[in-house]
Amino acid sequence: MGHCAICDEEITPLNDSKEHVVPNAVGGRLKVRGFICRKCNNGSGCEWDAELADQFNWFSVTLNVKREAGVAPSHPVKTVGGQGLLLHADGTMSPDKPVISTTEIPSGRQISIKARTRLEARKILKGLQRKYPESDFSMAFASLTEETSMPDGPIMTSFQFGGPLAGRSIVKTAVAMAFRMSIPPAGCELAMRYIKGVAATPPFAEFLSRDLVRIRPDKHVFHVVSVRGDPETKRLMGYVEYFGLGRFLVLLSTEYDGCPVQRTYSINPATAEEIKIAVDLVLSEDEFNRWLANDAVPDGSREAAFNYAMPVILRQMYARADANAFDRAYEEACRDMGIESSEALDNDQIMEFSRRMAHKLMPHLLRILRHRPRV
Questions:
Q1: Taking a C-beta distance cutoff of 8 angstroms, is the pair 191, 201 a contact?
Q2: Which residues pair with 100 in a beta bridge?
Q3: Model pTM?
Q4: How confident is the model at residue 210 (pLDDT cuts 50, 70, 90)?
């Protein structure tokens, strides 16, 4: 079956692994076998892919990326006013930590609790009961209430892509794609020297001199990895893009002598559906040399990438928030009226249900009118 591309151990049915070409942590589904051993799969996943996923976690959470195992971890954000929040994959937010305040009053002690979930509130109350056994917290248990409020201001976040660990994940993705094209890791000598730590100079860098995606979708962002072998230039090049923002070229080899070939894999991470994306990896010598000199990010090019990706992502985020608000209002109206969601209603019930739905949706509609930018 060959040898592991990372540690060179012989791959057998006992240590073979299914390696995701695009890390599953950001929604990739395509896999290769016989590429790396199970130990290296786990190690690179816990270090390289985890760092990449962390750098793009805001996007994974915002889009509720479809992963094969679990949802993206909640992402910490702050408001302009300094309020700490956690953004969750279901589209909701909560305080980043519970707040417990104690005030001494003439009649005793007043304790105020703001927890993120009912379960967390119950755990806190049990802890307080042990700390203050002379107090009776049974009424507090019975009177737990849920409140919904808006953050105290606009949300702030920042992004930084690349670096040694995430970079190795990006390079590994390009090598895995080449492997699917029957190009062995030994044929990706520049990439493999970097992955194995033999060469310090990374064979990847951003490329924003022009858009290499021929027809870029405007309804959704995507992940794409494309590899092209050109025997005339002897170059085996890879292109890896995440969420429309991280756009990287990878120089896999300068000794390619196979047939002209190019293959592309792309996926919509919000739906886990493969999509067709065409990538132009025919670079002019000037483009290639500028990229090689880390001079392929012209002024304003990163802003242009953000101006493409962010409106697409925000539209999807707002659509999900609207759907969640409607579903929540529907469920609450059914519960208030004591009816099943699938139950047929008479005319009077329909009027009452509509009134309750409008009342429950009004805060969400007001927030849209007051705070939501048009994208």
A1: no
A2: 113
A3: 0.84
A4: very high
